[in-house]
Amino acid sequence: MKLLKQLKRDERGVAVIEIAIVLPVLILFIYGIFQIGILYQANAGMQHALGEGARYATIYPTPTDTQIKAKIDATVFGTKPGTFTVPTPTTASGFKTLTVTYSQPMNFLFFAGPTVSLTRTKKVYVAPTT
Questions:
Q1: What is the distance between the alpha carbons of residues 46 and 100, in angstroms, rounded to a whole number?
Q2: pTM of the predicted model, to two decimals?
Q3: Fewest Cβ atoms closer than 10 Å to its Cβ: which of 31, 34, 78, 130?
Q4: CA 109 to CA 32: how far, in whole Å?
């Protein structure tokens, strides 16, 4: 009986058990923050590339859709872990619509998350050719 009371009061090893419970959750949160950071970086790279493509389509005299796509592809950054695509720009009534898409499957270390897709679009005025 005396031994049982002594074991109830003994607190050695409690910190190890607490760390064993909390550490995997903490690592998961920190890794998840890095995964979200990768998405924010890809979003910034997409916006930059889309702006450069829009600038190229506006300033350059009569650019082709292939040249605009090449400019967007050349200026994008932060999209390495996922898939970055640039569909052909569409033209309607003096405007070009530029679109970029990025998709990345999320990985949360202990389990796979959903695939996140980001799509950005910009409408650009194109001067009529004479």
A1: 7
A2: 0.80
A3: 130
A4: 8
* Residue 106 domain boundaries: 12-125
Answer with the residue of higher pLDDT: 30 or 130: 30
Report H helices in the chain: 2-9, 14-59, 65-75
* Residue 130 belongs to some domain of the structure: no
For tokens 């799509």, name the residue. Answer: 119
The closest alpha carbon to 97, from 67, 59, 65, belongs to: 65
Q: Are 97 and 90 in contact (CB under 8 A)?
A: yes
Per-residue pLDDT at 67: 94
Amino acid at 84: F
Q: Which of 54, 38, 56, 58 is nearest to 103 (CA)?
A: 38
What would the pLDDT profile of 57-92 be if each residue is shown by its tens digit? 998 888 899 999 999 999 999 988 899 999 999 988
In-domain check, residue 36: yes
- Find tokens 């040249």 and name the residue: 67
Please tell me the total count of domains within the chain.
1
Single-letter residue type at 78:
G
